[in-house]
């Protein structure tokens, strides 16, 4: 037989012959412990409200959120990331519900901690877009620009009330300069050195956040390009990483995940802390929509997308499928 390179002596297909072989040689494994469930809780509703652009995801009531948290624990999920949606009439120019101890996010943090104790890492979003009337991630100055340093003061107070309400970990997601350092300081000042910071270190100005804006009833007009990163940039991500590590981030996140796997890989190479990636609303919606049309195999596509994010180097993945996937992984 003619030889072509090392063929026919070398045949990689031998390692793919059957499921047990493939399982043994798999280089990447997904485990329930890798998963974090993002969840929305809305004030003033008596039934969960479906989010039409994210089939299967709801805005929770306080009760249904507790239940979802308990289910996540039972499935072996590691964490839950909470987003609060206050009553529309309570939103204002400062995002006051975000620092009100009785604001929906703080109420939900207490509820969930009462439900899960330390069996689930309870995390909360530190950002103003859910509570502010214009929908930006920060407060505005007289010219209508997002005011970085004034916003930091709000974030500091938010992190403190979230810690008081029971957050194990806070997640600053607004991409303000200095946010990690200011929040670390604010937590330490109230004696909460124990509360961790999962920094949204690399967050791109992405079209794939679209469905999330419905989920949190955001009123944003315009875009977030003066604070979120340009999708064209990769070296800038490493600069953000260096800054967040200097400021005291315990874990760093890349977001979105799927379209930015090269960034996940570069950050994982460069970081000496755990790396998370957020598979966002649009990534979720694309798979659900294509599957609903019968164009792709839903379950396989979900596992493939999540495995890709793990393979790129993320040890934690925020995904709206966390509980469902964790249950499936448990059965295997
Ligand atoms: C900001 C925030 C956003 C998401 C999480 N935190 C929205 C944004 O930056 O526009 C998006 C999450 C998703 O799309 O699933 N608080």
From TrEMBL:
Biological processes, Gene Ontology terms: protoporphyrinogen IX biosynthetic process
EC number: 4.2.1.24
Binding positions for Mg(2+) per the UniProt entry: 240
List of residues binding 5-aminolevulinate 2: 281, 320
Catalytic activity: 2 5-aminolevulinate = porphobilinogen + 2 H2O + H(+)
Residues that bind 5-aminolevulinate 1: 213, 224
Stored PANTHER family: DELTA-AMINOLEVULINIC ACID DEHYDRATASE
Function comment: Catalyzes an early step in the biosynthesis of tetrapyrroles. Binds two molecules of 5-aminolevulinate per subunit, each at a distinct site, and catalyzes their condensation to form porphobilinogen.
Self-association state and partner proteins as the record states: Homooctamer.
The protein's name in its UniProt record: Delta-aminolevulinic acid dehydratase
Organism annotation: Streptomyces variegatus
